[in-house]
């Protein structure tokens, strides 16, 4: 700490303290986060993870890393100071006066850009909330607080530990299921909802009701003045099945709202446009390479069924006869059908219907949380739902968050109106819709060439 002069304490939490300091050498104003180091060696190494992750993240919308050091059993991380406070403070200051749509789109686009950057490095933030998103003095978003982050071993890995803030936790985490980058997408949707309504999307007067609302994706309707693209985006981000949610990459490149968001990322727009074009369109240059490669390969004539190597000049002047479908059914198929027993059309339809219903039952997402989890929560003493870590403390209402409204005393009383859009509950699964990339992606051109050469 000899290199810094402490100005004041600007925050305290379960992690330790946050100090506003000035660097004696550069005169730059910074924030130093003090983290108490545990005695356990493995946990000691885990505490250093935030400094390591922060040092790797170099992005205009992520809090910049400056330095880290240890002393007096404390890990100190020096980072960029954001003079505009955090997003939660900005929301609370507005009270009942909503933000303009341009500010909402600009901030959300910057959040998505920062989240896309960390997901590209296979890092899950796991605690995305308005309190961990900061603003500079010129109202630019900076994503911070990587104390709960983790790194996945591969593009197909999942995390398992319960980490997060209850108001922003995705349904799959409440259901004690493995999760990946789609849980961060859910949390981003919660922050976006707060910007649009100045309220939490999921509020209740008991833990059971809160969990049920999250697992069902039931949230109050949005203001009608918002663009239809945002209404549609909420439907997708609050899909209860994580495989149905779009990734941050999809939101920025090929979603209906991507055009609105890219307008606020002018410095990154060409790159995102190129990524979106590559993701959903055929590359003409690659197509030319394929056709040139195939033109040099051997052709098979229909008369000999043997591969004959044609000279390139002859291939250009002579067209190989095209294969056609046979006009009559195959004798093999006819013989198989003749030997098989027949079913009446009514019984076949009934079997198909029963099989279809069984398939639908097996594929349906379980919306209710497990009873074991509910029993544990009823007996446990929990902190406020806006806190990141769950610890045993007495006192305080566990479900009153900084943006909560009064819910009344009767936990079984009437619930507020929520959006019941059945279209949002329909599946939109896309297994390839992820921000993670394979560790060693193969070159499909080389693979095609190897296949053709072996024929």
Keywords, separated by commas or semicolons:
Phosphorylase Kinase, domain 1, alpha+beta, Transferase(Phosphotransferase), domain 1
Short description:
With 455 residues, this protein is of the alpha+beta class. Helix content is 38%, strand content 12%. Among the domains are: 4-80, Phosphorylase Kinase, domain 1 (2-Layer Sandwich), CATH 3.30.200; 87-280, Transferase(Phosphotransferase), domain 1.
Q: Would you give an account of this structure?
A:
This protein has 455 residues and is an alpha+beta fold. Among the domains are: 4-80, Phosphorylase Kinase, domain 1, CATH 3.30.200.20; 87-280, Transferase(Phosphotransferase) domain 1 (Transferase(Phosphotransferase), domain 1, Orthogonal Bundle), CATH 1.10.510.10. The chain has 17 helices and eleven strands. It has helices at 41-47, 49-56, 87-94, 101-120, 171-174, 181-197, 207-216, 228-237, 248-253, 258-262, 269-280, 284-295, 312-317, 331-339, 345-363, 371-379, 444-454, and strands at residues 4-13, 16-23, 29-36, 65-71, 74-80, 123-124, 133-135, 141-143, 150-151, 299-300, 307-308. Strands 1-2-3-5-4 form a five-stranded antiparallel beta sheet, covered by helices on one side. The chain has a two-stranded antiparallel ribbon with strand order 6-9. Strands 7-8 form a two-stranded antiparallel ribbon. Strand 4 (65-71) and strand 5 (74-80) form a beta hairpin. Helix 4 packs antiparallel against helix 6. It is globular. Mean pLDDT is 76; it is low at 300-310, 389-395, 408-413 and 438-445.
């Amino acid at each position: 700490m000899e290199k810094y002069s402490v100005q004041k304490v600007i925050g305290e939490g379960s992690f330790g303290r946050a100090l506003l300091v000035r660097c004696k050498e550069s005169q730059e104003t910074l924030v130093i986060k003090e983290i108490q180091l545990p005695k356990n060696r493995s946990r000691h190494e885990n505490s250093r993870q935030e400094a390591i992750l922060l040092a790797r993240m170099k992005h205009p919308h992520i809090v910049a890393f400056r330095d880290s050091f240890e002393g007096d059993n404390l890990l100190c991380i020096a980072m960029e100071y954001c003079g505009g406070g955090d997003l939660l403070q900005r929301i609370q200051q507005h009270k009942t006066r909503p933000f303009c749509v341009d500010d909402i789109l600009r901030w959300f686009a910057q959040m998505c850009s920062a989240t896309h950057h960390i997901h590209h490095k296979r890092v899950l933030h796991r605690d995305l909330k308005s309190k961990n998103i900061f603003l500079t003095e010129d109202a630019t978003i900076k994503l911070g607080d990587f104390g709960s982050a983790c790194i996945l071993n591969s593009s197909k890995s999942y995390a398992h530990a319960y980490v997060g803030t209850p108001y922003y936790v995705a349904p799959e985490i409440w259901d004690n299921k493995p999760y990946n980058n789609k849980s961060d997408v859910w949390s981003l949707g919660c922050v976006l909802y707060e910007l649009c309504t100045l309220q939490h999307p999921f509020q209740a007067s008991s833990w059971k009701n809160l969990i049920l609302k999250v697992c069902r994706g039931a949230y109050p309707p949005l203001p009608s003045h918002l663009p239809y693209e945002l209404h549609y985006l909420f439907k997708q981000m609050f899909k209860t099945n994580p495989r149905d949610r779009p990734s941050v990459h999809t939101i920025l490149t090929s979603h209906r709202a991507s055009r609105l968001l890219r307008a606020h990322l002018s410095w990154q727009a060409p790159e995102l446009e190129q990524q979106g074009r590559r993701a959903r369109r055929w590359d003409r240059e690659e197509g030319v390479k394929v056709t040139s490669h195939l033109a040099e390969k051997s052709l098979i004539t229909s008369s000999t069924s043997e591969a004959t190597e044609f000279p390139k000049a002859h291939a250009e002047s002579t067209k190989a006869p095209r294969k056609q479908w046979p006009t009559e059914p195959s004798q093999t198929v006819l013989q198989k059908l003749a030997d098989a027993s027949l079913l009446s059309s009514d019984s076949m339809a009934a079997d198909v219907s029963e099989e279809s219903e069984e398939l639908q039952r097996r594929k349906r997402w379980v919306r209710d949380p497990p009873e074991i989890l509910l029993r544990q929560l009823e007996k446990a003493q929990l902190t406020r739902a806006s806190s990141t870590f769950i610890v045993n403390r007495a006192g305080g209402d566990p479900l009153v968050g900084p943006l909560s409204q009064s819910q009344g005393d009767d936990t079984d009383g009437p619930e507020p109106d929520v959006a019941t859009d059945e279209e949002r509950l329909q599946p939109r699964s896309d297994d390839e819709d992820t921000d993670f990339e394979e560790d060693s992606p193969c070159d499909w051109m080389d693979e095609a060439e190897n296949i053709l050469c072996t024929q």
